[in-house]
Amino acid sequence: MVFDPRNVQDRPSIRTDPPRWADNHDDTGDNGGVRVLVVEDDTSIARSLNDSLSDAGFTVTHVANGRDAIAAAGEADVILLDLGLPDIDGYDVCRTVRAESSVPIIVVTARSEEFDRVLGLELGADDYMVKPFGFRELVARIRAVTRRAGTDLDRADEATSPTIVVGPLTIDRRAHRVLFADTEVLLTPKEFELLAYLAEDAGAVRTRADIVEHVWDANWFGPTKTVDAHVAGIRKKLGDPRWIEAVRGVGFRLEQPG
Questions:
Q1: pLDDT tens, 196-240?
Q2: Which in 18, 19, 63, 97 has the greatest CB count within 10 A?
Q3: What is the CB neighbour count within 10 angstroms for residue 201?
Q4: With 0-12 CB in 10 A as exposed, 13-18 as middle and 19+ as buried, what is 130?
């Protein structure tokens, strides 16, 4: 069943029997304590999401504009962000939140063009969903991004060395900083993870499947252009596209330009 939050008929009412989207599947088991910030200016959509997510066991806070979203971001475990807000465009909210926090952001919007998807991901969103959507899929994506956020530090600790050096490029995992010739390069969290993963074995080709599994995870739901968008962002910030070479039909490798 497709859950359209604009349709009040799809919104579960307060009742004792399972909501229709549940399909006899228990969606409440792993959601307790997860704080979801819903950023949505349409009251009916916000109410639908609030009711459904609350029924699924999440703790939900709703704000209707970008300024309140930025102020409340620090108290959330995951943000569901609409792009068409009345005061600040959702892209600007995404950029501002990402500059200050690594909280997972799922863009939830009616904008379905590939350009919009890629731009949102380049600005630091972790996932992108187009309305209308399946509610169980939304729950799965929330679980996926919060699970990844909880394991990011574990991955850094598992690294052989907290610092990786490739020519003038230094990647400090513990400080989560990248220096290029002693100048700091500001990357989004996913750009940092992708660059570090490629740099762990500089010169070797990392397949797209391996990149998705290690930087996102094996259960990640998202467009295939996401890896390309993040690679493009890193290349631009490093100032030379030759740092990351695309190997046709395979993946990408990082090495110092000759």
A1: 999 998 999 998 888 887 887 655 555 567 888 899 999 999 999
A2: 97
A3: 12
A4: middle
Q: Are 224 and 201 in contact (CB under 8 A)?
A: no
Beta strands in 27-167 (DSSP E): 35-39, 59-63, 78-81, 105-109, 127-130, 163-166
Q: Are strands 127-130 and 78-81 parallel, antiparallel or unpaired?
A: unpaired
**Parallel, antiparallel, or unpaired for β 78-81 and 35-39?**
parallel
Is there a single domain that holds both residue 87 and residue 174? Answer: no
Find the angle CA(223)-CA(229)-CA(232) to the nearest 5 degrees.
160
Specify the CATH number for the domain of residue 166. Answer: 1.10.10.10
The C-alpha angle with vertex 116 and arms to 111 and 149, in degrees rounded to 5, equals 100
The answer to whether 11 touches 41, Cβ cutoff 8 Å, is no
pLDDT tens digits for 186-196? 988 888 889 99
Count up the domains in the chain and report the number. Answer: 2
Q: Considering the entire predicted model, what is its pTM? A: 0.56
61/163 same-domain check: no
